[in-house]
Design goal:
10 helices, about 375 residues, alpha/beta, Rossmann fold, five-stranded parallel beta sheet, about 15% strand, seven-stranded parallel beta sheet, 2 domains, oxidoreductase activity
């Protein structure tokens, strides 16, 4: 089984602190299930501010496990018993420079995998809204006009189109599952090569019955961390590009004008009357050079885009992204669902079982990689 990294590290009174910007009733049922499964743990819930949260310094002294969104001890010295931090988000780029991550070896886990189904649904929503010209149809409805059906005959079915997924984690794999059901061909791109069935298998949390755990959906798999590898992937005759990579120093501004041109130049959707490829960003706003995305839309390099992220957030009212051609902008809500916290606790529940059994935890944050 291996050595338990937590063995003899936690006091008999094992304390889990939930410091979250939500009212406690939203998570009570999940907490009850957690304490039933692990009765040796005591849980405390503290509702924190959504922005710049703080707590009394004394509140950290007996905490063994912290479940949080963005509330962290100001210093490692305040939490001598803390051995595990579980973030309820998948990306924790906002905390990479915090002393709790840079000056300790405290285990850190994330909620990667929770977001797959709702974010993949959002991706399909944005894509279908564009493909079917839903905004135009809605305008006709608001005007109480039936409209001329012949004006909508140019739209193409998604069947047979090629979808490139940049970042084939939990979100990308569920998007691939839905895309395959719609008759699309899926191509995947990851930082490291995935040449064997074992390497293509996803080891992070996956909601049962979703995604592509074995990594068998993509017809082709590409990899690399350099520009030439990325451009090679973007030149694979893609009709649609889904951006689903984590934000790190290596992915910041990964896609700009040059990349959009490579994508469009090689896309079958750029043929006469095709309009160009479609781009969806579910990663982080900083992964894309935003002004280059706007220019690509306004100049017809890409035919449309759907973005649930922006740079910065909140997106200022004067941003040119709001008025770009054929763009759907939503305020970082694609991963939000009523059962979100239930899945957060499910990950913690799994990891407590692994922890007690001396096994490696799932969804471990790798400090060296930054995600």
């Amino acid at each position: 089984m291996g050595t338990n990294p937590m063995e003899n590290s936690i006091h008999t009174d094992k304390h889990i602190l939930f410091a979250l910007p939500f009212p406690e009733p939203t998570i009570q049922q999940a907490l009850a299930a957690l304490t039933t499964a692990h009765p040796s743990y005591r849980t405390t819930y503290r509702e924190t501010a959504f922005k710049d949260p703080t707590m009394d310094e004394s509140a950290w002294s007996d905490v063994d496990i912290l479940v949080t969104f963005n509330c962290l001890p100001a210093s490692p010295s305040l939490c001598p018993r803390l051995k595990l931090i579980h973030f309820i988000s998948a990306g924790i780029d906002a905390h990479l420079s915090h002393s709790m991550l840079t000056s300790t070896d405290i285990l850190v886990t994330t909620s990667t995998g929770i977001h797959g189904p709702p974010m993949a649904e959002w991706f399909i929503l944005g894509l279908l809204a564009h493909q079917t010209r839903l905004p135009d149809l809605y305008d006709l409805q608001k005007k109480r006009e039936w409209g001329n059906p012949l004006k909508f005959t140019s739209r193409k079915s998604l069947q047979g189109q090629r979808l490139g997924i940049l970042g084939y984690g939990g979100i990308g794999r569920q998007a691939a599952r839905l895309a395959q059901a719609l008759g699309m061909e899926v191509l995947a791109y990851t930082a490291s090569a995935k040449k064997t069935p074992e390497s293509r298998r996803l080891t992070t949390y996956t909601i049962p019955g979703t995604g592509d755990v074995d990594g068998t959906i993509p017809s082709e798999w590409f990899s690399g961390t350099d520009k030439s590898s990325l451009h090679h992937f973007l030149s694979q005759k893609l009709d649609i590009l889904l951006i689903a990579v984590p934000l790190s120093t290596s992915t910041r501004h990964l896609l700009g004008w040059e990349e959009f041109e490579v994508l469009a130049t090689n896309s079958p959707s750029s043929a006469p009357n095709g309009g160009g490829p479609f781009v969806s960003n579910l990663a982080r706003g900083d992964v894309v050079v935003q002004e280059d995305l706007v220019s690509s839309l306004n100049n017809g390099v890409i035919r449309g885009a759907a973005v649930d992220v922006a740079d910065p957030e909140p997106l200022p009212s004067e941003s040119t992204l709001w008025d770009a051609k054929n763009v759907l902008v939503t305020p970082h809500v694609s991963g939000v669902t009523a059962d979100y916290l239930k899945h957060v606790v499910d990950i913690l529940n799994i990891n407590l079982g692994k922890w007690e059994g001396g096994e490696s935890l799932i969804n471990l944050f790798k400090r060296r990689r930054g995600y």
